[in-house]
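Anyone? Bumping this.
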Amino acid sequence: MRITVLAGGVGAARFLRGLRAAVPDADITVIGNTGDDFTPFGLHVSPDLDTVMYTLGGGISEEQGWGRAGESHVVLGELAAYGAGPDWFGLGDLDLATHILRTQLLLAGRSLSEVTAALCQRWQPGVTLLPMSDDPVRTHVTVDLDGREQVLHFQEWWVRLHAAVPASRIEPVGAARARPAPGVLEAIAAADFVLFPPSNPVVSIGVILAVPGIAEAVRAKTVVGVSPIIGGAPVRGMADACLTAIGVATSATAVAAHYGPDLLDGWLVDTQDKDAADAPELAGIAIQARPLYMTSVAAAAQIAQAAVELAGQVRR
Amino acid sequence: MRITVLAGGVGAARFLRGLRAAVPDADITVIGNTGDDFTPFGLHVSPDLDTVMYTLGGGISEEQGWGRAGESHVVLGELAAYGAGPDWFGLGDLDLATHILRTQLLLAGRSLSEVTAALCQRWQPGVTLLPMSDDPVRTHVTVDLDGREQVLHFQEWWVRLHAAVPASRIEPVGAARARPAPGVLEAIAAADFVLFPPSNPVVSIGVILAVPGIAEAVRAKTVVGVSPIIGGAPVRGMADACLTAIGVATSATAVAAHYGPDLLDGWLVDTQDKDAADAPELAGIAIQARPLYMTSVAAAAQIAQAAVELAGQVRR
């Protein structure tokens, strides 16, 4: 079985760990969002790729959901002693090694795909992890700050401001001219079906779909998604702030309607959102309600199993 | 009093700490060797500049003579886990912060002089620290390794091979087209005298003097040097291997003769090398013998004081 998954960070990583457990023999390709990438201290950080890689490779901090287990922060403290910022992004020493190596390889002329493959040589995530594009895409967020409109890098809004300042616009800068990374369109075309894990529909899945060619390729396939919204609130993170910025309500129904029946064939919602099955705007999408909280790897595996089964049922 | 000092690493740094103590009101400019600079993991390391900065700024590891006190090695261990090298250069976490920041500022278009000044803002070394040049100079060493001639970066020969493989050639690549950094020629011209601390005559002082314009400027001034060779052996490091490569004997006399009376006006040798005063090849150089082991800051201050006094006596 070949499965291709579009992935953001923590939610995707935990779902993927479940998927790998649920269908251990499946050939899984993960297309990761790189719109969150940024370069603190000139070091190339790919938060979503790393969260997937560390989680599947056994190096993740389970408490945080991102970053490394057993982490220390000597270098960041020292950079702060120099007065160098940013000081709001928790770059640990173990994690920094990944960014130092990635930056070195990129500066030596390697592509982000090649670098990702090189890093995965060590972590052995058990999936093929591809960045959505080797071209730079940076998600920018327009906010009203201190009485004037300002454009921030996504990370500054998300991590420094905790997305507490309303966004009037979210734009994946560079996406329009970005090309899918080598293997991305091929992996989608070759897949038996495509899964959307419970990732942010705007800044994760939405940004991946903004790379020309990817949405078209996905639309040609059977697609099953797992709602990142349960009971009107994001399970994790601040997806509500992103949905509000693009005029979509924070509900499992509204997110599925945002993707639309043209893209989505099946949609897993939490038991408490089972009314979605009756929503007229979701006609054409097979809705299935079940517990969606990924409280353990076993729970995530059951959710992934349900997504795989739903894909089998709705397969075009 | 204005003093300009050409500096290598550990010996220079300890001498400078003594000089600052001996003449606290002097205006001291240090011109640091950058031929040892290298870029492990794509990070710009300036070993000699850092050794001077950390030593005078109170951050040095006294045991090592280089690197930071209280150092840890989390990042380097993690890079090794990725199979990334070099693993023979002891880059600590505290130290890495300096290199990360330097690299970031250089990539942002700052010059090495500007970056050095920015880093010294924190360390307050009490001297003006200038790189010899903002242009890249890299000391290469030709050795016979595994039966064939190979050209290595100085650091690989010095640190990885402990200079145990004889060098047939030592070349400061790029020096011929390098320009003295802003302020270098001015500091030499404005100095009451120039001091050579007990630094390596070949790969430290020699490389600085290889930058066009610097040797000429120094030659116009009163110059007093402190012998890095005591009793026929380097006080520290493997200067003998460098001297052998350029056909100079490892003795206080031979090093002074190598600089020559055209450059050197005064030369401090250790008591056990007092015969240098009778060497005919040193005619024209005022030789003074005294204990030269820098066993403490106080001892280094006495040596520095002696160098300052000798400069006063031989002043042109």
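Late reply, but here is one note on the structure posted above: Residues 297-314 of chain A form the longest helix (18 residues).
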